[in-house]
Amino acid sequence: MTSRVAILMGSPNDGDKMAPAAETLERYGIDAEVHVMSAHRSPAVVSEFASSARDNGFVAIICGAGMAAHLAGAVAAHTTLPVIGVPLSGGAINGWDSLLATVQMPRGIPVATVAVDGAMNAALLAVQILAVDNPDLVAALEAHRQEMTPR
Ligand code: RP5
Asked: How far away, in angstroms, is 131 Cα from ligand 1 center?
């Protein structure tokens, strides 16, 4: 089974903010699968997806959500795969809520939280995880860093 990364988001309305995750994984030739599911509106779907993700060939799960952003935490509760949380801006307090809801996980159930609206970094972190035993990905990451270096 091909290794792939799941990109989950809490609402169809999160699509634009999460698009850089899929774009970045595509740049590195990593298969991604995008799903909308909500910790609050479809908790059974979240539970089922996360519980079976490893057996289904996923190697990491990126979760973007806004407001009371419990998607990453709910996913992490059901899997030992690396879970990367993307707090999304919007709502009355514009990202403070989702940042704290995503990052403040209890001891034992980690979520690697990136910046508010940091979907690109979430994907890069997934690539870096995959690069641990993949020299081609290491080379691609290093080339990308060179591109980003101001000259
Ligand atoms: C979160 O609530 C979603 O991730 C979204 O960012 C926010 C608002 O959702 P909608 O009401 O726009 O569907 O669960």
From this structure: 32
